Every structure is written in structure tokens, then in C-alpha cells.
């Protein structure tokens, strides 16, 4: 199992109110899976993503990544792990303003130890931006890009360190439907190339690109099921090769 959560809970305390955002979650995600996390607002989807991706610490329970117990890591170890093994895509893109697409994508490479003027880092970032169709936008700042283009920069940034898992929280939530389709297509291709993806969405058509859907309710898993892809004459989706 690539990622495994055992009895993971997360509580928030506001005054003397305790909110149990995650309530004893146990589940595993295998390599190359594409999981959609669904459920109503407030059901714990974002909290799950933050805890599973090591951005937030669980209040109790254990998390294993590639068999290694990572939930007891300190903040420095967690940051290192996130940089090396985890890619993030957020609803609001979270790019640095007044910073070019190229430099935004290069940023995780600096944290991974590349020098600020490394031509290798520059070349890697360029290749990754070409990969998402932005080879002609390297020097544009976020304000000079559409929402869909900004999200593609964010995906290139998420991929730059060749992470083990991509986590995406409502990646199409702030996009028009055409841009949303582009992002769905990129995520589908990444998964076909073997990337493990865990994506929060409340949109059925976005969840439909995943192979497994987990529905949250009140911080618990309400259902966890394989998605059956119908063959469609309009979709370019390739036939699933018996993977669940
Ligand atoms: N930082 C926080 N502080 C306090 N309560 C929070 C915080 N983040 C989330 N919550 C609460 O935890 C519950 C789950 O929230 P969240 O994970 O954001 O749900 P979802 O993403 O499904 O809408 C909600 O009741 C929410 O109000
Ligand atoms: Mg949320």
C-alpha cells in the first residue's frame, strides 16, 4: 500500500467547542490509483487531504507512506517529505504573484537543493511547462495568465520534483468549464502515465475521471467504491485496462 491511514482523527477546538473533522478514518491507497474524495461541504474532505498529505498533523491515528510511519515526523521531516514526495494542486492555484510561470515552477527545486541560477532547474521547469501546454508563457506572471493557465502552472509546479502522489483540492473549482476540461484531461493523462492522484471535488463530472470514489459524511467514510467507466463516443478516454 502506498498510503495508509489507520484510525486517523482530526479535531479542531474553537473555545470550548470541539469539532471532529475526521473521525477514525482507516483506508489505503495503492500506487497508480486515482481517487476522488466527495461529500457535502463540511464533511472533512479538505481536512482529509491536508492530513493525508502531511500538511496538517492528525490528532490521533497513524499514517504510513510506502510502509514508513510518517505521522510522528516533526515539522522539518514533514516539510522534507512534502517537497520530495508530494505534489499539491489547490482550488485557488496558490502561485507567487509578480513571479514568472518559470520561477513559480522552479521554486520546489530550490527547496530540493538546486542553486538559484541553476540552468538545469530552469530547463526542468521549462520542460514541465511545455508538458502542460505553456511553453510560450514562461515569462508571464499569474496576473498575465487565465485561471486555467494558472492552474496548469500549478500542476507543473506540483510535478517538478516527480512526486509519488499528487493531491488536488477542488482543482477545477474556480475555472470555467473549458479550462476545467483541460485540467481534467491533464490529470487523466498523468494517471495513465502512472501517477497516483487523490482529488477532492464535489462535481460529479470531475469525480467521474477517477477510478475510485470515496464519499465523506461527518468526518467518516460513507462509501468507498470503484468507478465503472462507460465507453463513450464523445470521450477520448482510453479503455481501462482492468485496473480497479
Ligand atoms: N482550521 C479550522 N479550524 C476550525 N474548524 C475547522 C478548520 N478547518 C475545518 N474546520 C471544520 O472542520 C469540518 C470539516 O471541514 P473541511 O475539512 O473544510 O470540510 P470540506 O472540505 O468537506 O468542506 C467543518 O466543520 C469545518 O468547519
Ligand atoms: Mg473543502
Describe the protein's architecture and organization.
The chain has 244 residues and is of the alpha/beta class. The protein has helices at residues 45-52, 75-85, 101-111, 119-131, 147-159, 177-192, 204-207, and strands at 3-14, 17-29, 34-38, 60-65, 68-69, 86-89, 165-169, 196-200, 212-217, 220-226. It has a 6-stranded mixed sheet with strand order 6-7-8-3-9-10, sandwiched between helices. Strands 2-1-4-5 form a 4-stranded antiparallel sheet. α4 crosses α5. The longest helix has 16 residues, at 177-192. It starts with a strand and ends in an 18-residue tail after the last strand. Mean pLDDT is 93; it is low at 233-244. It binds adenosine-5'-diphosphate and magnesium ion. The site of adenosine-5'-diphosphate has 12 residues, from β1, β2 and α1. Magnesium ion binds at residues 45-46.
